[in-house]
Amino acid sequence: MSTGALLLSRERDPPKPVADYFKTQTTHADEIAAQAQASAGLATAGFRTSKYRPDEWHKSNYDKYYKAFADRDIAERLRHESKQLANTTEAITQRTQADVTKKLGERMHDITFWKSELNREIDDVIAETDLLLAQKKRLENALYATEIPYKISLDNLESRERRQGVDLVRDEPEVELVKEVEIIKSVQDLLRRTLEQTINQIRNNRDAKQNLEMDWSDKKEALEIDDKCARLNNQSTDIEYHPNTGQWQEFSSTPETWAQYSHDNIVRAEQERMASINLRALIDNVISDTSTDMHEQCNTVDTAMAKRLEELNDAKAKLENHLQKTLQEIASQEKNIAMLKQAIADKRPPMQVAQTRLHHRTARPNVELCRDPAAERLLTEVTEITESIEALQRKLENAEASLKDLMDTRMTLEKEIAVKSNSIFIDKEKVCQVRTRYPSMMKLTGYQ
């Protein structure tokens, strides 16, 4: 029997059997007694042959004593070990449960951190998307505002096609108007491309926001679950057995992949947000540049139109001045023609007188028909008058031709003045007046 067993049972070992004592203390008297018993057994033969010996009786009792003692000792040791095991497992269980509660708290802290980061990024993406939507509205307004200048430019070109004669010229205003149409078309193309890029970026922002919100929602749900788990204790009423939960679930993430997932979502959202910020700056530059180009070209066209109107008015004034002088010259020439006709008419009587004199003097008789100075002078007079009439007639013809030219010039000048008046009306009333409807810079920049 070991010392430990003695301490546990607090009992002494059972005494040795009597048979062992007899075996160690045999005497002669014992032998005689044994022989007597043997003789007695022979004498009592037939009564009972299967009786136990005393040593067997003692051994049997001892075995039962020892078996009871051993069973009690084992049971007591088992009770002691069970109590120690129960205390140990209770301490381990409480320590493990406390550690799990602590780990749940740490996990909740991590979830709260990433949830806060996700929420901050969601707010930033929402704010950035709102700013980009405002820029999109500006782009749409700016694109819509280009329709009026485009129609104005086309209307100006169409109106100026109704100019007449030599005024239907490819002048500086027409060159600048064609350039204005090209600029507006290029501006519209650029604004449409930028608007399409903006729509795509808004879609990317919303996709990134949706990913963040789904991640945030999952973390909110996980935080609620872990908070519920952290509040559970041994006295909770809603605890029960759940078989098959003490193993890893399929497709579960690791702490590293879990944190990396949220990190990647935030990084992608930040990238989209930075792309959105850069796009907003690009939109500002595009709208500023396009509106400036259109406004400057508008001013260039207006300047060219003003210069052209000045030229037209100057040309018209000069034509009217020449027409006035031509009319005066026509009047003078008509008077001159009348004077020439009168002069020619005035030569008829002198011619008749001279010719009559010559005719009468041809009737002089004989030698009296002399070429005297009077006759010579009469002949000279007739010649002079004839030459005068011829000279006057030529001058009259020249005057009449000049008058005809003057009349033609008058008609040409009047037609040209009408052409200039038509051109001035078109450029002033049909072009410049329409151009006063050109949108302001506020509209071109999309703020109205």
TrEMBL record:
It comes from the Eukaryota. InterPro entries: Tektin-like, Tektins. Keywords: Cell projection, Cilium, Coiled coil, Cytoplasm, Flagellum. It is found in: Cytoplasm, Cytoskeleton, Cilium axoneme. It holds the Pfam family Tektin. One of its GO terms (biological process) is cilium movement involved in cell motility. One of its GO terms (cellular component) is nucleus. Residues 305-343, 375-416 form a coiled coil. The keyword Acetylation does not apply. Belongs to the tektin family. This is Tektin.
